[in-house]
Amino acid sequence: MTMLTRLVAFFLLISVPFTLSANDATYNQISLQTSASEDVANDVLVAILIVQENGHQAATLAERVNKKMAEVLEISERVQSVDSHTTSYNSQPLYKNGKINSWQVSQQIKLTSQDFEQLGKLIADVNKLARVQSMTFKVSDQRIEETKEALTKTAIAKFKAKALLVTEQFGKTAYQLVHVSVGGNHSSPQPMRMERMRMADTAMAAPPAVSAGTNKVTVNINGTIELEDE
């Protein structure tokens, strides 16, 4: 037997155990999935307000917008339960027959609060300065994490129960966890678009009627078990 033949025979011999081991690793493996979900009450309200001016002098319009927004910010900062900060600022020409006919200048402010009543009153207080562009309810990050923690425990318990059921139905006595992953998500409602509010005759309009609703939070468990006999 030549040296080359001996080497080939040697590598064939040592490769057999590894091949059998690879096959054994996937023997009697079953993938399972469970989930747990809960409808959680939205506890945060986000309102987007816009200050907008139209006219022929862009500089004059910008000055008006800046002045109104400064007033809105001043009023908002008095309400401690409401977080406020300005967002986008936009100045654009409006065309007619291919030529600039006028200008539109606008700026948005984002108001966020867990106190719906106070935020609604604030919106009414600044109604003559800024109009509501959208309102969105959502679940706070803290409540989402607390809910996911509880749902994870429930989903894992359901996974274990399903694994035991599958093991029993296949006539096995035990199982080994090969792989598991935990994931989750929560749906977010679309913002409610608000039609332009007509200014009331009085200095303060009535606070808008709002309903918070709920948001579904879900935790998913995906895993693989290997059935075995003790």
Q: What report would you give on this structure?
A:
With 230 residues, this protein is α+β, with helices and mostly antiparallel strands. It folds into 2 domains: 27-40 and 139-189 and 212-225, Translation Initiation Factor IF3, CATH 3.30.110; 43-136, Alpha-Beta Plaits (2-Layer Sandwich), CATH 3.30.70. Helix content is 35%, strand content 40%. It contains 4 helices and 8 strands. The chain has helices at 3-25, 58-76, 116-125, 141-169, and strands spanning 29-41, 44-55, 82-96, 99-113, 131-138, 174-186, 192-193, 214-228. The strands form 2 sheets. Strands 3-4-2-5-7 form a 5-stranded antiparallel beta sheet. Strand 3 (82-96) and strand 4 (99-113) form a beta hairpin. The longest helix has 29 residues, at 141-169. Mean pLDDT is 85; it is low at 7-23 and 195-204.
